[in-house]
Amino acid sequence: MARWHIMQGRRGTQDSASLKAALGLPAPRAAHGDVKIGPDQVFFGNTRMNALQARLFEPVIAIHVSAALISVVLGLAILLRRKGTPVHRLKGQLWVGAMFVVAVSSFLIESQTMPLAIPHLPALARFGPIHLLSVITLITLWRGIRAIRAGKVRAHRLNMISLYASLCIAGLFTLLPSRILGAWLVAIFT
Length: 190
What we know:
The chain has 190 residues and is of the alpha+beta class. It has helices spanning 16-23, 51-54, 59-80, 86-106, 130-149, 153-173, 180-189; strands spanning 4-6, 35-37, 42-44, 47-49.
């Protein structure tokens, strides 16, 4: 398990409880190695990251990103292969499960851009417009499953292809440097 250190100039280190207080974030978990966190930068191995980039290691974000990557790869495999076979059905069930995880886990991630500001409903402030996509995703998943169970192959195909296209478009927007995944990639490749 990684050890997290807050660097305070040259005065030594503090524990992970101080990390939460200093950065206002739960301490991310790393698989191995030492991770040092300073007031404005995080070091994972030899890679420098800021607090936004370090959020990728939060469990809910890691689960969300992993499920999204599985959905992209599995969805492409489904689209390129023959339809209606038992293998297609199995891959489709796995894809629906991964998409469900992507959509539901997004509700646990606080919106960093354009959070809702409704005066009488402060609990909604953690959500943003991107969460509407998650609601639409859950509805479209349900409609696609319902369509194929009713034998409406064309409706099923349209629902699932539109979901895959939406996933890919949303994925492209996460690569912007102002987003968590984009900021992390900038740290890795620069």
